[in-house]
Amino acid sequence: MDSYELRKLFLDFFAERGHKIIPSSSLLPTDPSVLFTTAGMQQFSLYLSGKKDPIKDFNSRHIATCQKCFRTGDIEEIGDDTHHTFFEMLGNWSIGQDETGYFKEDAIKYALEFLVNKLGLDKKKIHVTVFKGEGSIARDEEAINIWLKYGIPLERIKECSKKDNFWGPVSDTGPCGPCSEIHYDRGEELGCGRPDCGPNCEYCKRVVEIWNLVFMQYFKNDSGEYELLSQKNIDTGIGFERLLSLLNQKSAAYETDLFADFISKLEEISGHKYLENKKAFRIIADHIRSSVFVISDGVEPSNVGQGYVLRRLLRRVIRYGKTLELDQQFYLPLVDIIINKYKDIYLNVFTRQESIIDAIKKEEYKFEATLEKGLSIIEKILLTKKELTGEEVFDLYQSYGFPLELTQEIAEEKGININIDEFNSALEKHQSISRAGAEKKFGGVGKDAGEEGAKLHTATHLLHAALRKILGEHVQQMGSDINTERLRFDFKHAQKMTPEEIKQVEDLINLKIKEDLEVKKEEMNLDEALKSGAIAFFKEKYPDQVYVWTIFNPDSKEVFSKEICAGPHVEKTSQLKLFKIIKEESSSAGVRRIKAVIN
Ligand code: GLY
Fold first, then answer.
1. CA 38 to ligand 1: nearest atom
2. pLDDT of 300-327, one tens digit each?
């Protein structure tokens, strides 16, 4: 089955069942708090929250779409089987309840009917997950009973926590709810062989997720609370590329009709084989496709926001082109192939063809001018040593437009070290100089460093404790830094945190802030402190006499965090208001870095 057929089958299936087919919205959402459209429900957010009436605007509360989506979080994962920056999402909605609105039962019935009767998937290979209940939100027994009723046996129904089975909101606030995912068993030969292998297996990709059914009943408000929505909605999402690959027994969408012409053209112009150069081929394919779509929706390369994401994509395309010894403008026929492949589905890739080609050429021109110079500077530095200092990396960034990730990739290829801490300090120094300049110019006044500092120190302890609770006790502080605006925290952890983990950590900290825990300081000698269970990761650095800070619930006396620290701290966690992680990234091998703010 090819991509055209699959989109049509899905939309026809739901149209036949009374759904209005709505065109995809732009990749640039109207909500300014999010950079890109990351899910099909975004354009319906106000309807799902009950603020707008779908009957009035669509003459139906049942909707289906094929939506363009873009996720930046996974740029570094591109090249593997399943991640894409740009992808499409198929979805169906039932917004609000009256005699026509449907909820869990029909959503489940439709999904099974489509997968089994329309697409011919084997029902015996379908596994599902349901929400097992957490916090104030109950276990989804109703969904379990419906799955059983429709013939999915208990041994293929897995109950999972909020991390896997609670969806949304897409920004800080908005509609969300527990969900039930449909997974498909691709066969024993792809498995890890463990007895508990199944959906969300940590060891293999034998069972893959294909469809997420969200039972949207909540609204996460400004204070991080889940309010019951005035209406119930169904919101579903199928990863189009994932389903297409599965139906064609391919493990990656690069091997389906979506990219077939692209890959053969790239083989032809480069003289290299896809199978021997999968990573470079896949990065070029993914990034050219997403650049075409991002530009067609009106973004131009720049140094900020969406434009910076686009710049990173294009500069990576050009650089990976060089690893395949491709000439300048090698991408022209490839851009053409993408435009041709999608022009019947998303007309603006065709109508904006000239702007797309123009923007890419201009960016190549700008980058080429600096790339040669930058690369020769790197070569020169490496004649005498095996490391790039942070200042040198910063200079490449500042003067030659080398995004940090690009220098990191070059360094990795050459097997040399770069000092990211030093780069970050150079960047921060530069930014605080510009900020100081701006403050002077606009007469701005800095925040009270003393009070802000105390809040950020306390937030750092809450973060450390929350990470150990959510990710595990292997998390150890490796460093931290606080300025007047944000905290930075480095810790031992091998994998990139998932968006769900980040949200769980934020939610836990915000809960502790709301519970208004007390922050107590005690002076004791180091041995006593360690015996009392206080954590300390720089043992050799402490004096004999230390301060132990305990963050605890004054009613239940339950301790959330106990750490040795030289302070300063606040007295009550409620002084912190809202905690938010603004960045999670790699700091060095096996060490992650979080930047967070409190408001
Ligand atoms: N909104 C459902 C999903 O993106 O999975």
1. 4
2. 998 778 998 999 899 999 989 988 999 9
